[in-house]
Every structure is written in C-alpha cells, then in structure tokens.
Amino acid sequence: MTITPTPETAPRRTGAAAALVRYGYVPLMLLGVNGAAIALMAAGRSKAWLPVLLILAISLSFAAERVLPYHRPWNAPLGDRGRDLAHAVVNEGLPLLSLATFPVIAQLTTADDKWPDDWPFLLQVLFAILVADAGLTLAHYVSHKSAVLWRFHAVHHSVKRFYGFNGLMKHPLHQSAETLAGLAPLLIIGIPVPVAGALTLAVAVQLLLQHSNADYRVGPLKQILALNEAHRFHHLKWAGIGDVNFGLFTLIWDHVLRTHSYDPHRAFTSDDLGMAAKPHFPVRYLAQLAEPFRVGRTATGPPVDPPAAAVPGAPPGARPDALADAAPETAAHLTGRR
Length: 338
Fold this sequence. Notes:
mainly alpha; 12 helices; globular
C-alpha cells in the first residue's frame, strides 16, 4: 500500500540547517542534553540545573520543528497553547520539586539496598532508564485496557496535533500512576537522588522527542528506540488501531508483547489524531482535569471503525472487519477503548 503524502507534508527542506535537524537533533537531545544532566548530577552539582536543561530541551524542540517540520500545520496552535503550557508546568514541575523530598521518600520505600553504587554513574542511569521503561510501558499498556485508567489517559490522546511540547500533556493523576509504576522497583532497591534527577530529565527529553513534529531520521534504530516515527501510530484515533507502540524509551516490550507496528508509507495529519469515539473532548486545561470525574459521562465511547488506510499494511479497499487479519502486528481487534 502506498499513501501519497499530503501537500503540507510532501515538501522537504534541504540545506545545512535541515540536514542538521534531520540527523543531528536526536543525538543532540539524547547525548547532549541528557549527557549534560548526567555529567552535572555525577559531579554533585545542584538539581537547579535540571529545569534549566529542560527549558533548553523545549527550546530545541520548537526550533527543530520549525526548521524541518514533518507536517507544517502542526506547528500552528489550535487554541491549545495555554493548555499545553499548563500541562507542562504542572507535569514537569511536580517531579522536579519532588526531588527535594526524595531522600525522605527513598528512606521510607527502600526495602533492600541493592543499588549498584560501584557501577560508573552513566551505567547506573542507563540501568534506571531500562527498569523504568519496563514499568512505564506496562502501565501504559494497562491504561489502554482498564476503563478506569483510560478515563485519565484519554486526556493525552485527545490531542489534534502532534508536536513535542504536547508530549508533556497528561492528566497529573495518570502521570502519577505511571511514574509510580516506573519508579517503584527503583525505589525499592535504593536509587540515589542524583540518578533519579538524571532519569527525571531523561523522561521529559524522551517525551519531547517521541511527540516531535521534526522530520528527523534515526535509521534502523527506529525499530528499537521509541521515537516519533513509531509513536504516531499510537495516536491513531480509531478503536484498537492505536493500541500499539506503548514504549517510552524503547520498543523492546512492544516486540515482546507483539504490539509493535510500523508502516514506512503511512502519512499522518490531524484527521488521524484524537479519539474517533469522542471527537469533542474538552480542550481547556481545567475541563480536561475534570472530565474523568464527570458523572454520567465517560471518557470513552463506542468503537468507531477506521478506514482501511488507517491500518499499516492493510490493502486498499479492505473492510474494517478484515483489518485485523490484514495487519496482525497492529493488534487491531477493533475492541479498544477509543
């Protein structure tokens, strides 16, 4: 199946700046920004450097999306600028502030101090990322299966444009649940505060990269790293079709769970995003926070059949009831909670 890109998506900028973003943006964020955080925390520097690096990462995200956008209309606000800012301040401010109380939390939760303190600091951070990735991925997976968790997670899936900054857009209660799933094993074995600080920034950087509107390339690593090329499939709006590519840092667990999906010919626009069963989900910040608690309403709706083109690998003209057979790797049973 070949899907012709939309006019807004088709043009590709050339030149030094475009090439720098296409091949240099991801290394700059993963190695540069994260590397700076790791070096500062390893040297015992103040945790006040972490919000500085976060602001730098957000600035780089916006800059990259303007130099080399995947879908130019996604750079234009849809009445969501203030809302996304509020989500970012709350959802990134709380983890950074919690680092101040982390020693107390660690003292209360550490069951057996088995942390590998003798490892090089970089390896300690990488270990923390892999452990957290497992917990966060499984919590994300369960959030698509549990009606209660989905009510809160639906806030994140209500987006109508895919750009880095709205990777930070989550209901704070759902973020807290996911964070607990990712951090609990690390807390139990005694993760040190500096490692937790580096991990906190790495999560934010990953969310910016994963939802980025920058048309960057990582080659074969797209099959392993949970970046934007794979994560766009997760935000497809049809029931079950978007229940793929749950990983935050890696796609390892998606390969294990058989929820990995990718089609290099698939192009995305705002028509593909959001929730087909609830197209008028609240846009304003406070309304989104209240939506999961609204009596007599749910954050879900009846399944809505997707067009064949929505499913990676589906042949043109395929019937919705045949899509699961046409693309088994998507796990698109059309029984999801969208």
